[in-house]
């Protein structure tokens, strides 16, 4: 039995569900979903985005108070794992995966450094206060990066 469990775990690379990007004002400026479960409600409303932001902010603050450092990178529940990356400009990237996915914090950093900075920050047509990211190159870059990961199967 133990060997069967180990074998299944070794074949499973994890599953990537969704990515949220929040600005410094707690507004969700980007949301992308992959591998939607047909048995669950389709789409995430604005209230759910605010709940996601709130729980990440609360857990980050608890971690800072307990450790005196920015050590909050992931948290897990019985159903999913959340990967968290916060930029120096207080942009927050939150990625939801299944429990078996290894930490993807470096990939979130890569989304920020290579895609967000290149296609949103350096975009001369983008206003200084981003309300939503509707840049097709950014969206395509995020999709390509996520789809290249082992957890996207």
Overview of this protein structure:
The radius of gyration is 16 Å and the shape is globular. The chain has a 5-stranded antiparallel beta sheet with strand order 2-1-5-4-3, with helices on both faces. The protein has 153 residues and is an alpha+beta fold. Helix content is 40%, strand content 18%.
Helix fraction, binned, reads 25-40%
Give the strand line-up of the largest sheet.
2-1-5-4-3
Number of helices: 4
Proportion of residues in extended strands: 15-25%
**How many E-type strands?**
5
Short note summarizing the structure:
Helix 3 packs antiparallel against helix 4 (about 135-145).
Describe the SSE topology:
Layout: H1 2-11, E1 16-22, E2 28-33, H2 46-67, E3 74-76, E4 81-86, E5 92-97, H3 105-121, H4 136-147
Task: Give a quick set of tags describing it.
alpha+beta; single chain; five-stranded antiparallel β-sheet; 4 helices; globular; 153 residues
């Amino acid at each position: 039995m133990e060997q069967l469990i180990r074998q299944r775990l070794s074949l499973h690379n994890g599953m990537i569900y969704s990515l949220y990007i929040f600005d410094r004002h707690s507004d969700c400026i980007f949301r992308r979903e992959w591998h939607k479960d047909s048995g669950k409600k389709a789409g995430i409303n604005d209230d759910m985005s605010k709940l996601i932001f709130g729980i990440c902010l609360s857990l980050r603050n608890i971690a800072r108070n307990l450790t005196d450092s920015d050590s909050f990178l992931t948290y897990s529940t019985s159903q999913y794992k959340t990967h968290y990356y916060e930029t120096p400009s207080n942009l927050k990237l939150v990625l939801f995966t299944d429990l078996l996915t290894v930490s993807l914090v470096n990939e979130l950093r890569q989304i920020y450094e290579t895609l967000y900075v290149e296609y949103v920050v350096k975009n001369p047509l983008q206003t200084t206060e981003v309300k939503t990211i509707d840049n097709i190159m950014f969206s395509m870059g995020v999709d390509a990066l996520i789809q290249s990961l082992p957890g996207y199967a």
